[in-house]
Each structure stands twice: as C-alpha cells, then as structure tokens.
Amino acid sequence: MDKTMNSKWLILEHALRNCFIVTLSFFP
C-alpha cells in the first residue's frame, strides 16, 4: 500500500471513532 492510501484509511478510521464517541456521549 502506498502512503496516500494509508493516510486515507487513517483519516477514515479517525472520523468513525469520533462519530462513535459522539454517539456514546449523546446516548449514555
């Protein structure tokens, strides 16, 4: 895998994790 593809997946994973944390904070 090249670096651009790897960074895209890292950004996507980070965004999904942020959405998960926000959802947990809204629905405790």
What is the string of SSEs from the N terminus onward?
A: H
Termini gap? 38 Å
Low-confidence region ranges:
none
Percentage of residues in DSSP E strands = under 5%
Summed over residues and divided by their number, the pLDDT gives a mean of 89
The biggest beta sheet is recorded as: none
Please provide a written account of the structure.
With 28 residues, the protein is an all-alpha fold. The chain has one domain (1-28). 86% of the residues lie in helices and 0% in strands. The model has no long low-confidence stretch (mean pLDDT 89).
Tags for this entry?
28 residues, mainly alpha, rod-shaped
Strand and helix map with partners:
Elements: H1 3-26
Quick summary:
The chain has 28 residues and is mainly alpha-helical.
